Amino acid sequence: NGEATSTSLVEEYVTMGFPKDMVVKGIKEIGHNDVNALLELLLTYK
């Protein structure tokens, strides 16, 4: 179930201090399979 995975992933990044809408946007762009690419993308947003 990809939805549950992305939900827990969103919560994980929000806990790290990233805004939820930014995390959701990043997951839509990158997907939730490559967490390293997602983290790099989020760091460029900040």
From TrEMBL:
Domain of life: Eukaryota
Domain UBA: 3-45
Full protein name: UBA domain-containing protein
Organism: Aegilops tauschii subsp. strangulata
